[in-house]
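step: validate -> pass
step: tokenize input -> pass
step: predict -> running
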Amino acid sequence: MSERGVMRIRKAVFPAAGLGTRFLPATKAQPKEMLPLVDKPLIQYAVEEAIQSGIEQMIIVTGRGKNAIEDHFDIAFELEQALEERGKRDQAEEIRRIAEMTRFAYVRQKKALGLGHAILVARDLVDDEPFAVLLGDDVIDAPTPCVRQLMAVFERYRAPVIALMRIEGPEISRFGVVRGEMVEPRVYRLLDMVEKPRPEDAPSNLAIVGRYILTPDIFEELEVTPPGAGGEIQLTDALRALLRRRPIYGYEFEGRRYDAGDKLGFLIATVELALKREDIGEAFRTYLKGLQL
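step: predict -> pass
step: emit ->
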């Protein structure tokens, strides 16, 4: 790995080839990643977080029926022209900004074989560099972007870093869970991890959420990782194998995480993010207060 690669994260991978079954029938003919929170698709929140963290190239892993993602981040000349002609210059500029915000590359995952497999598909585009992974289902609202927080830990320890959050009660069984020792506030050197344990078997209340800084040696592990839960290649399994030969760290990030891959979580995110908007927040708050529930 080059010294430049060790020092700087330039690329981010966005797995976006899943079937979106939790949002059927809405996702029958459109990508889950394009579902809007207020007026912005899920995947754009993740892309903007990466840009705000200083990442330069976005690698989106897509699949069949995902063309809308590419179209969203491409130039829309006819739409821009129509908006300009109607005097809607602010909207035209917003559409233009989306296409010009950064550089994109796309690669197809021909079968939805899990998160680990999706990352492996991006191997040639990542090359021999450390890189970020952002899962669009996890929308994280934080003063300092979550990925930027992880990058700061990576810069200190020169090792993979996983975002962690505390989960109490039976909900822990929906996550990968780590066992680790604290090496500084919020930073843990990981000792083990397990995918979706029973609550009584969870090694801690520190759960893995959808932000990672990974090093290219993860690809060697993903190549030999057998299918796990659901017949999918699990990233957690590959990280656990990698942990046997190099340190991996977890960081309990600062910020509010929304599970936008779940119907209830999606609704909560929509409400809370709408309330923060300068253009509609006050009117929406007034409306909610007036509801007869």
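step: describe -> The first strand starts at residue 11 and ends at 15.
step: cleanup -> pass
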